[in-house]
Design brief:
With 166 residues, the protein is mainly alpha-helical. It has a single domain, classed as Up-down Bundle (Four Helix Bundle (Hemerythrin (Met), subunit A)). Helix content is 61%, strand content 6%. The chain has helices at residues 2-23, 28-32, 42-61, 78-98, 101-104, 122-144, 156-162; strands spanning 107-111, 117-121. Strands 1-2 form a two-stranded antiparallel sheet. The radius of gyration is 16 Å and the shape is globular.
Length: 166
């Protein structure tokens, strides 16, 4: 499973770079325009992904995130959001590269955003971490479909063919 999660971390960065590359072609008004989705703009959706990744990564490394709400949008400026995304993706890759298999096989104890203690097998929590990203990236992808630029293909199989570290 360790190799799988390392690959998923690289895939996550690859897919995010593709999404951000397309969004960079839009005007700021288009990025912030109201759209149908749980977080109702491309900017809010991409911000949510950064915020939740920071929350989960904080839990994984034992250092709570400063973020308290899932709908926080700390980055109004797309260049700053892009830099934050890239930094978080590098952090995720480094974490999974160093993560021992024994930790993947362990029980994970943490507190949710309401401060309630939770306990779960680590493996499904790690799967959720990547599934959550894919879920919201899909929402951003759908929002991009309503713009003048075409959304990029994000299928994992395309990444597998390109991944040089596999």
């Amino acid at each position: 499973m360790k190799a799988h999660f390392e690959r998923m971390a690289r895939y996550n960065r690859w897919a995010n770079r593709r999404i951000y590359g397309v969004v960079a072609q839009l005007e700021p008004e288009e990025i912030h325009a109201p759209r149908s989705g749980f977080f109702p703009s491309i900017a809010k959706t991409l911000n949510h992904m950064v915020v939740t990744d920071r929350i989960w990564m904080g839990r994984f490394v034992g250092k709570l995130s400063d973020h308290k709400r899932l709908d926080e949008a700390p980055y109004e400026d797309f260049a700053e959001l892009t830099a934050a995304r890239e930094a978080e993706d590098q952090r995720i890759i480094a974490f999974f590269r160093e993560l021992p298999q024994a930790r993947i096989d362990s029980v994970f104890e943490y507190k949710n955003t309401a401060g309630e203690p939770k306990s779960s097998e680590m493996l499904p929590v790690l799967a959720h971490f990547f599934n959550h990203q894919t879920h919201h990236r899909g929402q951003a992808h759908a929002m991009i479909s309503s713009t003048r630029v075409a959304p990029p293909p994000l299928d994992l199989v395309y990444f597998i063919y390109e991944d040089k570290e596999a």
